[in-house]
């Protein structure tokens, strides 16, 4: 499992995530934890390959932060990584950890999905630095991600404070040249009892508050002198830019001759440095992703500045956007927009060929009068064509708790509605179990479909307590979901384990459980097609002679099935029906037989491989 | 920043777009250049569009290529060439595999596949070179050679010798699948011939 580790001083080509992983290892960190989440996932995926460091997939981000924090109480170094929404979950711990501070260095990497590549919202995690009074480092490329991740541990220990390493997609997933330095080692002295510091009851916590504020003042002074905050000078002083992270790179690209104050240690904001900088230029433009955070602070300090008055409030910034904004600010002609893209059909993400979720959504689409509360994972795609069988998606675990609310808060039109929650195995363990306990305790009439595919699918197949493997792929205790649901109070009669490829059985199970007047759980038990447990069957094809154009197989939504021709038929009743003859891309078919079970003409048959059929 | 070369490699998840971009980047890294490479492939495993941005030169700042700034567009699929051709700078050129891969939304009749993507690009004033990389790869005996054929096809448009890129590809195979070195060399040279 371990990789061969290139020596310090080697010129490497690494992504920001890889660079952070290397830095955490080089910093002699002892414990690192994370829950997978785009764009942060690869940090722990890389880190687990290094020796002499404990790594784990935690069940959620709050757990990962607490694991990392616990390790630092021994004097050793701890690290956790999460996507932006993960910090919402972890923030309960964060807001008190900031009071106690840490002994060994504690670094928290938070990766913002600026531009929504794979998230339910867009957040600016720099706010946590202000909210929790913590220093925030903002690298602008992979080398800085390495340098700042290492510096973060030193800052953390020097000021006994957790440090936030704020990343964005354009750090995490951008490869660049990185030269790592020598590794250091750390040996904590061990945990020292100190109730006044580690037991945060009001009497103790009250005493920590002044220390926290003093720490912040010291950090502000430190940030004022930090080499991570630098002026890159330029002769064109009409606009002086204040920027951080990848946005600073865009500024330098778009305005190579303009002065730029690039903030790497951006919180606490080094306001005197900013004031001095502002005095050297005609006007200040603050360029930040995504909220007007520094801009607001700078203005509050009495420094005139522009920002979101000319720049977009959301999404990724780019050099052309900046050039247009600067032109607007200077009252110059805005450069012509680049040519508009030619219009082409979209390629929305689809579920995989033979995905076990296909059977679930095919079934849910057939049952009437369902309100389907959804969750976060591959199965969120059930909201799309052809199933249209998922009605909500908000946050991890919300499917079940929202279903409770939908049941208890039924409106006039909901009287005969059955409420179903759909949630994956990993999301259930992350934050869904509490909702089910709530449903049982409060006697909600809901049916939970727990889609157990034994992996965290959406982020690329990481292990979890349901997969039977740890972060290294070694055998690990495997949770028994049926027993777990029973322990949470669901009656055993109302817990069913069903093969999602057995459509009639699944259909019956859904029909019966939604009618039960109590909480029920249907667990589907087939693995993700992308993990080793998945077993391929005999590929299928459509016998053109037999295909009658009924198109039922298309309702499965398998991307291996496509339409070859269309037609219309007038039924004896006079009703006109649309027909669609289909084919199966047999080379990618894994023989799950879902479509076969929908075929009215028995036209879907085993495929015998021929040279001609190769694409 | 005038010495920065911008290459945009596009296609569909699973086609080898990211590997091709990685090899281009590796070649530039090997020459001691500053290099940045980024992609948007959040859900590419699930049939989505993949675009990989490779930038190299003395000093590369922004990670991504902006519309109107690409020197070379390498498209592994015809409609994807069309989707991304507005990223080319005036005078830039597109190397397009004429393969047509229709997604489910097209086969289900929700959208149309453009009749002639290459012609649409030319009508938009783009310098396009289209060819059937799959036919060349199959002619050599393995469809998986498309990746190497495509790289060969742009090898003589790069600001460094084609041999540098070739060596990079062959070294990769030498390390992992030595029996495929010779075949890939032929695929690379066949790609060079299409221009």
Could you provide a short overview of the structure?
The complex is a heterodimer of chains A (615) and B (195). Chain A is of the alpha/beta class and 615 residues long.
Throw out a few tags for this protein.
heterodimer, A: 615 residues, alpha/beta, Rossmann fold, 5-stranded parallel β-sheet, 18 helices, 32% helix, 18% strand, disordered C terminus, B: 195 residues, Pyruvate-ferredoxin Oxidoreductase, domain 3, 6-stranded mixed β-sheet, 39% helix
Largest sheet of chain A: 7 strands, mixed
Task: Write out the strand line-up for the largest beta sheet of chain A, numbering strands in chain order.
Answer: 3-2-4-5-7-6-12
H and E string of chain B: EHEEEHEHHEHHHH
The structural class of chain B is alpha/beta
How much strand of chain B? 15-25%
The outline of chain A comes out as globular
Overall geometry of chain B = globular
How much helical structure, as a percent, in the residues of chain B? Answer: 25-40%
Describe the structure.
- The complex is a heterodimer of chains A (615) and B (195).
- In chain A, helix 4 crosses helix 9 and helix 10 crosses helix 13.
- With 615 residues, chain A is of the alpha/beta class.
- The C terminus of chain A is likely disordered.
- Chain A folds into four domains: 202 residues, Rossmann fold (3-Layer(aba) Sandwich); 102 residues, 3-Layer(aba) Sandwich (Rossmann fold); 169 residues, Rossmann fold (3-Layer(aba) Sandwich), CATH 3.40.50; 74 residues, Alpha-Beta Plaits (2-Layer Sandwich).
- Chain B has 195 residues and is of the alpha/beta class.
- Helices cover 39% and strands 23% of the residues of chain B.
- Chain B is built from eight helices and six strands.
- Chain B has a six-stranded mixed β-sheet with strand order 2-3-1-4-5-6, sandwiched between helices.
- In chain B, strand 4, helix 2 and strand 5 form a beta-alpha-beta unit.
- The longest helix of chain B is centred in the C-terminal third of the chain and has 15 residues.
- In chain B, 55% of the residues are buried.
- Chains A and B meet through strand 8, helix 10 and strand 20 of A and helix 1, strand 2, helix 2, helix 3 and helix 4 of B.
- Strand 8 of chain A pairs antiparallel with strand 2 of chain B.
